[in-house]
Each structure stands twice: as C-alpha cells, then as structure tokens.
Amino acid sequence: MRRLLLAVVVVLLLLPAAALGDGRAVEDPSAQPDVEPVTIRREVGSAVLLRSWYVSWNGRVRTLLIAYPSPAPAAGAPLLVTNHPAGMSMICTDEVGLAAARNGYALACLSGQGVVTRAFSYGSAGQIADLARAPQLVDARIPDIALDPARQYLAGSSMGGTEALLVALRYPSAYDGVASLDPVTDLGRRHGSLPLNRRPLLEAECGGPPLLRPDCYAVRSPSEVLPYAQALPRQLLVWYSERDPVSGEPLQVPAFVSALRERNLPGTLDVRVGDWGHGALWDRTGYRRAWLRALGLLERVSE
To answer: pTM of the prediction?
Structure first.
C-alpha cells in the first residue's frame, strides 16, 4: 500500500498543472476577451495620456498605455517602454505618466501575451518579440509627435526584468538601453521556489514542470540564452539585491552576472547590488528615480 501511495504521489507531481483539472489555476489568460481596437486620448496640462491597443504576436488585441509630452522636444521625445512583473503591476499610471511628460520623454506599457497567460508570460518567445518591436507599436499610435530614435529604452522588474534581459540578449539593437531590475535568470530553478499557487501558471506556459519540459524553461532563461548572445545594447543595467531571495539567490543573478562579465560582449554593463526588497526598484518612487536617472531620463527636472 505504501508503494502504491508513493507511486500516485510521483505521478501527480510529474503531471502538468493544467492537466490536474483545476481550470481556475490558469484563469489569467486567454479566456479574457480582447480589448477594443480604439484609442482614448486625454490631455492633462502639457501631457497626453492614451489608452490604446496593439495586436500581439498571436493575434490577440491587448492594451497599450502611452503618456507623452506635448509639445515634444525638438529632437524628438525619448521613449521608455516598461514591462510589468508577474501579475500585471504596470507603472503607466496617470501620476507616473505625467512625471514622464514633465521630464520630456514618452512612457509606454504593453499588457503582454504569453503562450497561455497574459500577466504571467514568463519570457515566451512571442512576448519577447513584441517587446522588441514595441517602439514601432508606440510610434504608430502617436503620429502627432516624433520619437528620438537614438534614445529608446526598455525597463522591467522581476518577471518583467527577466523579459527585458531576454530582449537585450536576443535583440541587442532594439533599444539603446535596457534596465533589468530584480530579474530571474534561471527559470527552471525559480519554478522550485515559486509559491505553489503560482506554479500552475508557469507550467501552463511550458506545458509541464522543468523535469518534463527542460527545453522550454531553458529558452526562457537568460543564463541559458547568454552563450548565444553576440552583443548587448549600448547600455545594460542589471540591478539586484543581496537581500532578495528571488534574484539575489547565488545561482540566479550573481551567477549570471559573473558569466556575463566573462563573455565581455560589446556594450556598457551597469551592475548594482543593493539591499532592497524584491520589486522595490519598481514600486517605490525613490528607487525608480535612481534607474530613470541612470538611463538619462531625469535630466530636465526632478520627478
């Protein structure tokens, strides 16, 4: 009897979470209807705030939020594309959008689309391709101003930081600068430390756990993609915290940074190690100012 129970437990552990019959485990995603392909424009002082749309890699119509200054700088407005952490914590709020406009740059957020999930895309190839072409998606929605082609940046935190790092490694010329904040660099290893209620979302993206689908987790892990990278963006920020058990775990960002330095790829690498909590670089205004300043986006006035 004990052997039978053990065999049942092993089989259940190996089954993909989506196969266990709990449809609620992957509710985030595809069942959600597409947004309307319309743009709603608001003007607040010298800022324009847009709630718009884009067609994702798999044909889904997803939300695109944009804020930009009006009028734009004579040389064109710098662009910051931001990529949310797992669970859709976008920073394209009115407050942050107005601050971007005061500083003379455009801010944009894509809601994202993975293979199965939307808010938990975890580095799917289509999502990475969408992020790489985001400047063109934004440009198509703001025909009344010009963007500065030499000052376009991507930033993301946690899962968003992982995806930003994948863009930097796979599409190094897509952005002038990329800020990867508190990322995960080994997705298979992260699976084992995720809360149990979050694992089904990741497993749904890959069709199973790392033991069954190692290739899927590898192509979504910056540490596995790094050996194939040929260059970096002109400016790459990789910021993480030693106090963070997610990104600061020794075999996550510390090991990745060590391997990245050994590659000595073309581009400028800015690694900063701090003691903030996971996600603080994204959620807290003071920390956010630091990486915005490092990207050169807070030159005109203080946020």
So the answer is: 0.89
